[in-house]
Amino acid sequence: MKALAWHGKHDVRIDTVDDPEIVNPRDAIIKVTSTAICGSDLHLYDAYIPTLKAGDVLGHEFMGEVVEVGAKSTLKKGQRVVVPFTIACGECFHCGKHQYSACPNGLPADNQDIARELYGTEMSGLFGYSHMTGGYAGGQAEYVRVPFSDVGPIVIPDGVDDDKVLFLSDILPTGWQAAEYAQIEPGDTVAVWGCGPVGLFAVQSAFLMGAERVIAIDHFPHRLELAKRFGAETINFEETATYEALMEMTGGIGPDAVIDAVGLEAHGLFVDNVIDQIKASTFLGTDRPHSIRQAIIACRKGGRVSMPAVYGGFVDKFPLGAFMEKGLTLKTGQTHVQHYMPGLLNAIMEDKIDTEFLISHRMPLSEAPEGYRMFKDKQNEVTKIVLKPGMDRAAA
Amino acid sequence: MTDLANPQADDAPLIASKRKEAGADAAGQLPEAQGDALVGNAVTINRPVAEVYAYFRDFAKLPSFMENVERIDVLDDSRSHWVVKAPGGGTVEWDARITEEEPERLIAWTSEEGADVPNSGRISFRDAGARGTVVSAVILYDPPGGFIGRVVAKMFQREPAIQARRDLRRFKQLLETGEIATPAMNPKQFEEMGL
């Protein structure tokens, strides 16, 4: 089959690799119909994430048709499913608490050592996201082997377009969980750093959860425009001093809850960012945490900090004093996708959440390397690229 | 208390001790102990203690999750013969004898005369209520010398604690999910990758 494989920094290619087969009884094989490039794939593209190997197949946002099932899969051939990006067993203590992304059983034992050293515990197994998360081949491919297919994938009713439901795999639940972690109360003002897909879904989710005002912060005009479409007020941090604006807009109090949807590759020419970038490029630090610093400084006393953003390693100058003195609460983590999928599928079917607005480009899988380049270089207009392996099949 | 502790210091398990004598202390607490290099690990398995114990007590099944163990022949109710992979394609072998057994609580063993790698240890099982069963392993071994030693040292001294941890993790996966997690793309690759 054809698949998008990583070969080095800014070097991804379409390789021909073996088709996947059933290995374990709970596996299913999915023929991919739609698969997206995620903002966090850019962290791989930029070689920020360790333990990637040349030839690794990327992609963790995908859906498709079930073409083969193991003896203990509950799926049926021909069903259309969206697959969560986290691989969770459904049987362990954490899955029992619906903390699916904390499941230790999706991660091969041999891949647990690195995270054990770095984080004190193993990570969750993920599709197409380095060997630290299991070394699983990802979804930017014609076919994918999906473990624990009796627990993860959600069956999509006939007649519902791929484009409407694809984002159930990651970014919609991630944006929703981000808003949930902000513990929004009626009348709250919520500030969201980053109007990428997660930030934009967090904006929609925050309103659905009762926020009175949502303030969206970015520097790409088109992305701010999309946030405005869902009722957010906007701050362009290239034109405006964010902290001063937030204080003014909230009557000197600060937002009740802040959401960092930017993460380890924050853009913008801030002094701390430039220092962080030098440190990251010389391996003195790994992450560029400008947005979380600013969010903590802006949040009101006693407020809530929600951090869906991905951080990989260590940060410098985390404002721990401000965090303590203001009595803030921080909630973060990989998304418990399986927990949110059924409710969010209903919300999509009832038109409470708009998903398709996000897709700016649809292209065949064979053009994925160009897709990565565009996504990296043109973040204003390229909000989401969806790859369609079927477009290649149709052309063939 | 089923974990080996150092009563003179604190309540922490001996395997976390920073003291050089920890191995000797552990040996003092195990029946017929052999070896003084100490490793250990604990894992919580979301299954009832009776089931966890029964699976483990059937020694012939242990290679299903122990990466380096090629084969275990059960000789009689208390003795078994272990064939363990060594780097370079060879194997090391020993006979193990149960020295202490309390069903659903603990199994202790020691290797018999002539073992390539003299070793002993204890696996304990503790009912953890709604969380299932806590399995703790304490293993003592003699870091080997000589020719076999050089081969075996690679295996045992590389990261014996990591090996024990990986084996217990696979044990957990097998009992909780019915399978062992792998990124393999097909059964042949799974076979080649090993556990």
From TrEMBL, chain A:
Which residue intervals define the domain Alcohol dehydrogenase-like N-terminal in the entry? 25-153
UniProt cofactor(s): Zn(2+)
Q: Which SUPFAM superfamilies match?
A: GroES-like, NAD(P)-binding Rossmann-fold domains
**What Gene3D superfamilies does the record point to?**
Medium-chain alcohol dehydrogenases, catalytic domain, NAD(P)-binding Rossmann-like Domain
Which segment of the chain is annotated as a signal peptide? none
Which Pfam families does the entry link to? Answer: ADH_N, ADH_zinc_N
Citing just one GO molecular function, the answer is: oxidoreductase activity
Name the keywords, alphabetized.
Metal-binding, Oxidoreductase, Zinc
Q: Which residues form the Alcohol dehydrogenase-like C-terminal domain?
A: 197-265
Give the source's domain of life in one word: Bacteria
Q: Describe the family membership recorded for this protein in Swiss-Prot or TrEMBL.
A: Belongs to the zinc-containing alcohol dehydrogenase family.
| UniProt name for this protein | Glutathione-dependent formaldehyde dehydrogenase
User: What's the source species for this entry?
Assistant: Sphingomonas metalli
Automatic annotation (TrEMBL), chain B:
The name this protein carries in UniProt is: Cyclase
On the tree of life, the source organism's domain of life is: Bacteria
Q: Which InterPro entries does its entry note?
A: COQ10_START, ORF3, START-like_dom_sf
List, alphabetically, the SUPFAM superfamilies matched. Answer: Bet v1-like
Q: Which organism is it from?
A: Sphingomonas metalli
| Phylogenetic placement of the source organism | Bacteria, Pseudomonadati, Pseudomonadota, Alphaproteobacteria, Sphingomonadales
Coenzyme Q-binding protein COQ10 START domain location is: 45-167
Family to which the UniProt record says this protein belongs? Belongs to the ribosome association toxin RatA family.
Gene3D superfamilies reported for this sequence: 3.30.530.20
